Amino acid sequence: MDRGEQDKHYDFWWNLPQDYMVSSEWGLPPQFENGLVAEDLLSNKYGHKIHFWDLRARKNIQTIDLGANHQMALEIRPAHDPTKSYGFCGVVVDTTNLQGAIFTWWRGEDGTWQAKKTITIDPRPEKAENLPPLLQGFEAVPPLVTDIDLSLDDKYLYVACWGLGELHQYDVTDPLAPKLAGKVALGGIARGTKHPNGKEFVYGPQMVEISRDGKRVYWTNSLYSTWDDQFYPGQEGGQMVMADVAEGGGITLNKDLYIDFPKGLRAHQIRLEGGDCSTDSFCYPSA
Question: Reading across the β-sheet that carries 12-15, which strands appear in turn?
């Protein structure tokens, strides 16, 4: 009923017992349907705010601007424990340095919401001739943080670096001080790291899903077809893979689980039978 500053939208999640919702921003349809608009990105015209809502009153209660340089504030991942009032938001790219970033957001003791950048991921230098036209002027591969996912016990945050071709695992036991716990390389711009079984993985790690027991992490490779074609020209295909999670942290690609979708199909969202970590939401903490 009252949207406040919000004029763009992307992801959202809610906490029903605490009666709040959090939402993020991508861009307007002309800014993504036919591919990334470089001029708009460099002018910081994509989304860079997160919005907090009173669910019952259906109104915006607070908006936090992460900074215009933090372009495309996409995935919202709150703590699964419904007694907690914090979570994470992934930012695709910082236009000042091409870094990817993760912000932690939380509700302070005075009831107002706050946000702080707690993870940065650096770009990788690369020769212009190895890059798609969109990136040649930068001579670097940005991480392009396109998805994040939080394990059900709220311990590990997984970050998909679609440009670098890496999946990172962070220990977020302290949500304001994440620590890198593991990572694997697969695909990636100008790198194309193959799967351990020797087969190709086109594009890079994209949509991520975690089993409810936290022992397996799955991901696919396609972001959005027009964007796939911009950042990975000449490539085509849909794959899904899995990594095993070690006790105490660390991830290893599973050699046996590799799904290559039929020609002409691309792979995006994953949903696991019986529940998973990006769809399950709770009204009560676990016993």
Answer: 12-15, 20-23, 49-54, 59-65
